[in-house]
Amino acid sequence: MGDLDRIFSVVSELRRRIFRIGLVLGPILGFLVTFQLRFANLRLLGQSVPVVYPYPNLFYNVTAQVFRRLVAYMLPSGVTLLNVGVGDSIVAQFEIAVLLTLIVGMPWIVHEVGAFLVPALRRNERELLRRIGIPASVLFAVGFTLGLLFLTPLTFRFLFAYVSAMGLAPVLGVQAFVTFTLLYSLAFGIVFELPVFIYTLTRLGLVPAHSWRQHWRAAVVGSLFFGMVVTPDNSGVTMLLVALPMLGLYLGGAFFARRWERRRDALAPTRGVG
Description:
With 274 residues, the chain is mainly α. It contains nine helices and four strands, in the order αββαβααβααααα. Helices cover 72% and strands 9% of the residues. The strands form two sheets. A two-stranded antiparallel sheet has the order 1-2. Strands 3-4 form a two-stranded parallel ribbon.
Protein backbone atom coordinates (compact mmCIF):
# COMPACT_ATOMS: atom_id res chain seq x y z
CA MET A 1 0.00 0.00 0.00
CA GLY A 2 1.42 3.35 -1.06
CA ASP A 3 1.55 6.50 1.02
CA LEU A 4 -1.41 7.99 -0.84
CA ASP A 5 -3.49 4.89 -0.19
CA ARG A 6 -2.62 5.06 3.50
CA ILE A 7 -3.67 8.71 3.66
CA PHE A 8 -6.99 7.92 1.97
CA SER A 9 -7.49 5.01 4.36
CA VAL A 10 -6.88 7.20 7.41
CA VAL A 11 -9.17 9.95 6.08
CA SER A 12 -11.89 7.40 5.34
CA GLU A 13 -11.63 5.93 8.83
CA LEU A 14 -11.69 9.41 10.39
CA ARG A 15 -14.79 10.31 8.37
CA ARG A 16 -16.48 7.10 9.49
CA ARG A 17 -15.73 7.79 13.17
CA ILE A 18 -16.98 11.40 12.89
CA PHE A 19 -20.16 10.15 11.22
CA ARG A 20 -20.72 7.63 14.02
CA ILE A 21 -20.24 10.37 16.61
CA GLY A 22 -22.72 12.56 14.76
CA LEU A 23 -25.29 9.74 14.72
CA VAL A 24 -25.29 9.78 18.52
CA LEU A 25 -24.80 13.49 19.25
CA GLY A 26 -27.30 14.72 16.63
CA PRO A 27 -30.40 13.16 18.26
CA ILE A 28 -29.24 14.31 21.70
CA LEU A 29 -28.88 17.91 20.49
CA GLY A 30 -32.24 17.72 18.72
CA PHE A 31 -33.94 16.46 21.86
CA LEU A 32 -32.49 19.23 24.01
CA VAL A 33 -33.77 22.02 21.75
CA THR A 34 -37.21 20.57 20.97
CA PHE A 35 -38.41 18.99 24.23
CA GLN A 36 -38.90 20.14 27.79
CA LEU A 37 -38.85 17.95 30.88
CA ARG A 38 -42.09 17.87 32.82
CA PHE A 39 -42.52 16.52 36.30
CA ALA A 40 -45.53 14.63 37.63
CA ASN A 41 -46.50 12.35 40.51
CA LEU A 42 -47.95 8.90 39.90
CA ARG A 43 -49.87 6.86 42.43
CA LEU A 44 -48.25 3.44 42.66
CA LEU A 45 -49.31 0.98 45.37
CA GLY A 46 -50.69 3.83 47.42
CA GLN A 47 -47.45 5.80 47.16
CA SER A 48 -46.72 9.01 45.22
CA VAL A 49 -43.85 8.37 42.81
CA PRO A 50 -42.26 11.37 41.03
CA VAL A 51 -41.64 10.85 37.31
CA VAL A 52 -40.06 12.93 34.56
CA TYR A 53 -41.30 12.79 30.99
CA PRO A 54 -40.43 14.73 27.80
CA TYR A 55 -42.98 17.03 26.22
CA PRO A 56 -42.53 18.80 22.85
CA ASN A 57 -41.78 22.49 23.30
CA LEU A 58 -39.62 24.39 20.82
CA PHE A 59 -39.21 27.50 22.98
CA TYR A 60 -39.25 26.46 26.64
CA ASN A 61 -37.07 23.42 26.07
CA VAL A 62 -34.47 21.65 28.19
CA THR A 63 -31.87 24.32 27.46
CA ALA A 64 -34.25 27.07 28.60
CA GLN A 65 -34.93 25.12 31.79
CA VAL A 66 -31.20 24.76 32.44
CA PHE A 67 -30.70 28.45 31.70
CA ARG A 68 -33.26 29.48 34.30
CA ARG A 69 -31.66 27.23 36.88
CA LEU A 70 -28.26 28.74 36.14
CA VAL A 71 -29.63 32.28 36.51
CA ALA A 72 -31.30 31.46 39.84
CA TYR A 73 -28.16 29.79 41.19
CA MET A 74 -25.41 31.98 39.73
CA LEU A 75 -26.52 35.58 39.94
CA PRO A 76 -27.07 37.66 43.08
CA SER A 77 -30.61 38.81 43.72
CA GLY A 78 -31.58 42.00 41.93
CA VAL A 79 -29.46 41.42 38.82
CA THR A 80 -31.41 41.94 35.59
CA LEU A 81 -30.60 39.97 32.46
CA LEU A 82 -31.20 41.74 29.15
CA ASN A 83 -31.63 40.31 25.67
CA VAL A 84 -29.40 42.93 24.02
CA GLY A 85 -29.17 41.41 20.53
CA VAL A 86 -32.15 40.09 18.60
CA GLY A 87 -30.86 36.54 18.52
CA ASP A 88 -29.04 36.44 21.87
CA SER A 89 -31.58 34.11 23.44
CA ILE A 90 -31.31 31.64 20.54
CA VAL A 91 -27.50 31.67 20.67
CA ALA A 92 -27.57 31.20 24.44
CA GLN A 93 -29.86 28.17 24.13
CA PHE A 94 -27.64 26.70 21.41
CA GLU A 95 -24.48 27.12 23.50
CA ILE A 96 -26.10 25.38 26.45
CA ALA A 97 -27.41 22.62 24.18
CA VAL A 98 -23.96 22.00 22.69
CA LEU A 99 -22.35 21.77 26.12
CA LEU A 100 -25.01 19.37 27.43
CA THR A 101 -24.71 17.29 24.27
CA LEU A 102 -20.94 16.98 24.70
CA ILE A 103 -21.33 16.04 28.37
CA VAL A 104 -23.97 13.37 27.72
CA GLY A 105 -22.22 12.02 24.63
CA MET A 106 -18.67 12.15 25.99
CA PRO A 107 -18.40 8.38 26.69
CA TRP A 108 -19.26 7.66 23.06
CA ILE A 109 -16.88 10.37 21.81
CA VAL A 110 -14.04 8.91 23.89
CA HIS A 111 -14.84 5.43 22.59
CA GLU A 112 -14.74 6.51 18.94
CA VAL A 113 -11.60 8.62 19.36
CA GLY A 114 -9.87 5.76 21.15
CA ALA A 115 -10.92 3.29 18.44
CA PHE A 116 -9.42 5.62 15.82
CA LEU A 117 -6.13 6.19 17.65
CA VAL A 118 -5.39 2.77 19.15
CA PRO A 119 -4.21 1.05 15.91
CA ALA A 120 -1.55 3.73 15.48
CA LEU A 121 -0.25 3.49 19.04
CA ARG A 122 2.47 1.27 20.40
CA ARG A 123 1.69 -1.20 23.16
CA ASN A 124 3.04 0.99 25.97
CA GLU A 125 1.11 3.98 24.60
CA ARG A 126 -2.15 1.98 24.53
CA GLU A 127 -1.51 0.88 28.10
CA LEU A 128 -0.87 4.47 29.15
CA LEU A 129 -4.07 5.62 27.40
CA ARG A 130 -6.10 3.07 29.33
CA ARG A 131 -4.36 4.00 32.58
CA ILE A 132 -5.02 7.74 32.35
CA GLY A 133 -8.52 7.55 30.85
CA ILE A 134 -10.46 7.31 34.10
CA PRO A 135 -8.32 9.80 36.10
CA ALA A 136 -8.55 12.33 33.26
CA SER A 137 -12.34 12.03 33.10
CA VAL A 138 -12.71 12.28 36.87
CA LEU A 139 -10.42 15.30 37.14
CA PHE A 140 -12.26 17.12 34.35
CA ALA A 141 -15.61 16.40 36.00
CA VAL A 142 -14.33 17.60 39.38
CA GLY A 143 -12.87 20.78 37.92
CA PHE A 144 -15.95 21.61 35.86
CA THR A 145 -18.28 20.92 38.80
CA LEU A 146 -16.15 23.00 41.15
CA GLY A 147 -16.13 25.88 38.68
CA LEU A 148 -19.85 25.67 37.95
CA LEU A 149 -21.16 25.24 41.48
CA PHE A 150 -18.71 27.30 43.55
CA LEU A 151 -16.18 29.50 41.78
CA THR A 152 -18.39 30.95 39.03
CA PRO A 153 -21.16 32.06 41.44
CA LEU A 154 -18.47 33.44 43.75
CA THR A 155 -17.01 35.42 40.86
CA PHE A 156 -20.39 36.89 39.94
CA ARG A 157 -21.05 37.93 43.55
CA PHE A 158 -17.61 39.52 43.76
CA LEU A 159 -18.00 41.47 40.51
CA PHE A 160 -21.51 42.72 41.26
CA ALA A 161 -20.35 43.88 44.69
CA TYR A 162 -18.37 46.53 42.78
CA VAL A 163 -21.49 47.41 40.79
CA SER A 164 -23.50 47.86 43.96
CA ALA A 165 -20.76 49.90 45.65
CA MET A 166 -20.73 52.36 42.75
CA GLY A 167 -24.51 52.70 42.72
CA LEU A 168 -24.84 51.30 39.21
CA ALA A 169 -27.75 49.27 37.88
CA PRO A 170 -26.94 45.53 38.14
CA VAL A 171 -27.58 44.62 34.50
CA LEU A 172 -26.02 41.86 32.41
CA GLY A 173 -26.55 40.72 28.82
CA VAL A 174 -27.85 37.18 28.42
CA GLN A 175 -25.15 36.32 25.88
CA ALA A 176 -22.37 37.58 28.15
CA PHE A 177 -23.81 35.63 31.08
CA VAL A 178 -24.04 32.29 29.28
CA THR A 179 -20.69 32.61 27.53
CA PHE A 180 -18.83 33.56 30.69
CA THR A 181 -20.54 30.89 32.80
CA LEU A 182 -19.75 28.10 30.37
CA LEU A 183 -16.21 29.18 29.47
CA TYR A 184 -15.23 29.93 33.06
CA SER A 185 -16.51 26.55 34.25
CA LEU A 186 -14.91 24.72 31.34
CA ALA A 187 -11.63 26.49 32.09
CA PHE A 188 -11.55 24.84 35.51
CA GLY A 189 -12.25 21.47 33.92
CA ILE A 190 -9.31 21.97 31.57
CA VAL A 191 -7.07 23.21 34.38
CA PHE A 192 -7.74 20.02 36.35
CA GLU A 193 -6.35 18.03 33.41
CA LEU A 194 -2.90 19.53 34.01
CA PRO A 195 -1.58 16.73 36.28
CA VAL A 196 -2.58 14.12 33.69
CA PHE A 197 -0.87 16.12 30.95
CA ILE A 198 2.37 16.40 32.94
CA TYR A 199 2.33 12.74 33.97
CA THR A 200 1.69 11.61 30.39
CA LEU A 201 4.57 13.61 28.92
CA THR A 202 6.93 12.15 31.49
CA ARG A 203 5.66 8.59 30.96
CA LEU A 204 6.20 8.96 27.22
CA GLY A 205 9.78 10.13 27.85
CA LEU A 206 9.19 13.54 26.26
CA VAL A 207 9.83 15.63 29.38
CA PRO A 208 11.89 14.36 32.34
CA ALA A 209 10.40 14.91 35.77
CA HIS A 210 13.18 17.22 36.95
CA SER A 211 12.31 19.68 34.17
CA TRP A 212 8.92 20.36 35.74
CA ARG A 213 10.60 21.35 39.00
CA GLN A 214 13.26 23.44 37.27
CA HIS A 215 10.68 25.49 35.35
CA TRP A 216 8.29 26.24 38.21
CA ARG A 217 8.76 29.97 37.64
CA ALA A 218 7.47 29.60 34.10
CA ALA A 219 4.54 27.65 35.53
CA VAL A 220 3.71 30.56 37.85
CA VAL A 221 3.77 33.03 34.96
CA GLY A 222 1.75 30.69 32.76
CA SER A 223 -0.86 30.17 35.48
CA LEU A 224 -1.25 33.91 35.99
CA PHE A 225 -1.49 34.50 32.25
CA PHE A 226 -4.13 31.79 31.82
CA GLY A 227 -6.11 33.20 34.75
CA MET A 228 -5.91 36.66 33.21
CA VAL A 229 -7.20 35.39 29.85
CA VAL A 230 -10.24 33.48 31.14
CA THR A 231 -11.41 36.02 33.73
CA PRO A 232 -13.45 39.10 32.80
CA ASP A 233 -12.13 41.76 35.16
CA ASN A 234 -8.84 43.48 35.93
CA SER A 235 -8.98 43.25 39.71
CA GLY A 236 -6.59 40.31 39.90
CA VAL A 237 -8.73 38.49 42.47
CA THR A 238 -10.61 36.35 39.97
CA MET A 239 -7.34 35.75 38.15
CA LEU A 240 -5.89 34.26 41.33
CA LEU A 241 -8.98 32.04 41.73
CA VAL A 242 -7.82 30.30 38.55
CA ALA A 243 -4.05 30.66 38.84
CA LEU A 244 -3.60 29.29 42.37
CA PRO A 245 -5.42 25.97 41.81
CA MET A 246 -3.63 25.67 38.47
CA LEU A 247 -0.24 26.09 40.13
CA GLY A 248 -1.15 23.54 42.81
CA LEU A 249 -2.19 21.05 40.14
CA TYR A 250 1.07 21.69 38.28
CA LEU A 251 3.08 20.84 41.39
CA GLY A 252 0.91 17.77 41.98
CA GLY A 253 1.53 16.55 38.44
CA ALA A 254 5.27 17.11 38.84
CA PHE A 255 5.21 15.09 42.08
CA PHE A 256 3.49 12.08 40.48
CA ALA A 257 5.76 12.28 37.45
CA ARG A 258 8.83 12.18 39.71
CA ARG A 259 7.37 9.31 41.73
CA TRP A 260 6.82 7.29 38.55
CA GLU A 261 10.42 7.90 37.46
CA ARG A 262 11.70 6.68 40.81
CA ARG A 263 9.62 3.51 40.56
CA ARG A 264 10.85 2.94 37.00
CA ASP A 265 14.48 3.38 38.01
CA ALA A 266 14.02 1.08 41.01
CA LEU A 267 12.54 -1.68 38.86
CA ALA A 268 15.05 -1.27 36.01
CA PRO A 269 17.46 -4.21 35.71
CA THR A 270 21.03 -3.58 36.79
CA ARG A 271 23.26 -2.86 33.82
CA GLY A 272 26.90 -3.63 33.35
CA VAL A 273 26.87 -6.74 35.57
CA GLY A 274 29.05 -9.55 34.29
